[in-house]
């Protein structure tokens, strides 16, 4: 065997030894693919409040208890017990989703001068600060989707609270499937979001 043949053989062997772990890692990754159905929330496309074109607002990420601060969809089976919807999840942690959809809803209204999140460098007039108090399916006495969000409008220049209100909506699920639960939650959230946007436009 020529020296060149030995060099080629050793090179092929080294490449094969590197490729095998990579192949194993790829196959292992396929075996751990998520099996949950993943859902998103929608945002209203319009708002009925007055125009506030001269105002720019900042939407902070909502606060929430740990049970709601995840991708899991909450099922409340009693006043003191919660479970999570099997084989289903949100596309992101719930507070981040709510923040993104609120921003989208303000933008869709076309009635504010600007809207953004922390870090985007806007010259802010007001901050919208929210807390997710409920975002769940309640099963007692017929299943219902319940969304409750507390909101504050804070003057960014002096820190004073311009307004504070709790928004809540309950929607019958109309079925016991994962899809029925998520659709009901989406309808309840869309209604609450519309109310928050209209209230903000009226308040600023």
Treating each run of at least 4 consecutive H or I residues as one helix, how many helices? 3
Distance linking N and C termini: 86 Å
What shape does the CA trace take? elongated
Order of SSEs, N→C? HEEEEEEHEEEEH
How much of the sequence is in beta strands? 25-35%
The average pLDDT value, as a whole number, equals 86
Uncertain runs with pLDDT below 50, 5 residues or more?
A: 2-32
Rg, alpha carbons: 25 Å
CATH topology grouping of the largest domain: Rossmann fold
Helix fraction by DSSP (H/I, runs of at least 4): 25-40%
Keywords, please?
204 residues, eight-stranded mixed sheet, Cholesterol transport system auxiliary component, single chain, alpha/beta, signal, Rossmann fold, 3 helices
Topology at a glance:
Blueprint: H1 3-31, E1 37-39, E2 52-59, E3 63-64, E4 74-78, E5 81-84, E6 88-90, H2 94-109, E7 112-116, E8 126-138, E9 144-155, E10 161-172, H3 178-203
Parallel strand pairs: 1-6, 2-7, 2-8, 3-8, 4-8
Antiparallel strand pairs: 4-5, 8-9, 9-10
Organism: Rhizobium metallidurans
Protein name: Cholesterol transport system auxiliary component
Keywords: Signal
Structural notes for this entry:
With 204 residues, the chain is α/β, with parallel strands linked by helices. Helix content is 35%, strand content 33%. The chain folds into 2 domains: 1-33; 37-203, 3-Layer(aba) Sandwich (Rossmann fold), CATH 3.40.50.
